[in-house]
């Protein structure tokens, strides 16, 4: 029995060291080496496993107290590092985008719905039913291929403004709007297979804003999908340059393939121009729908000054690996 306790203690010690090491190495998130970059994603998982590990190491008697204290100290460092990134996504932190209160007649409320539908997903009706239920003013769909485009063509009856960039590379995009727009254009900012849709929106009040719809590639190599292997991902930085030159209010939304964790400025080089609607409200993890141990926020909504948030929701699964997001915004 004593041997089993010793083996169990060694296993716990090794796991605790690995968790602490992963948490500490995650500070080097701004790297093109995808394995190190990936450690930025599971911060929630790393935080709670480090917390459990700390309790277990503290409760299990160690023959060598110094080893026990060193492991506990490493876990505390890991807990602190992850908490630093996660704390802004709690209700105790100030909201990056203010809450909409006492909405006046001159304010314009509109709603947005964004969903990475997953190209191989065939639960088209689940998506259509959810859109019908929420009745958003703007619908952004990602990973739209020819099959998905055909399956949701009925949306055009309620959404007279439509812009599409359909492909079979898992980066097709379709934007549907009840809000009038002008100069809706498809841009390929960093990859010939990865479209972005940018347009100027005009609300009923006459107020205008520029909408940027993005879906940059992830920090991972895919053999058969668009990839930036060997080069820096610059799509968000190029979008950031556009925003810095734009005199209008700006709204950015899409599957960013990144957890962000308040890294909006480093990712976009916008110097505090863009605000994250999640900050001060919650994590709202949008990926992965089936694998709870891989759940983190990949789909995002950013705004410049002038916007407020009335509602922010993560919606039920529509069969994709991403949950849809829904928000009511005020300009």
UniProtKB/TrEMBL annotation:
Keywords: Endonuclease, Hydrolase, Membrane, Nuclease, Transmembrane, Transmembrane helix. GO terms for molecular function: endonuclease activity. Signal peptide: none annotated. It holds the Pfam family Exo_endo_phos. The chain crosses the membrane at residues 7-28, 44-62, 69-87. Residues 116-322 form the Endonuclease/exonuclease/phosphatase domain. This is Endonuclease/exonuclease/phosphatase family protein. It comes from Mesonia sediminis. The lineage of its organism: Bacteria, Pseudomonadati, Bacteroidota, Flavobacteriia, Flavobacteriales.
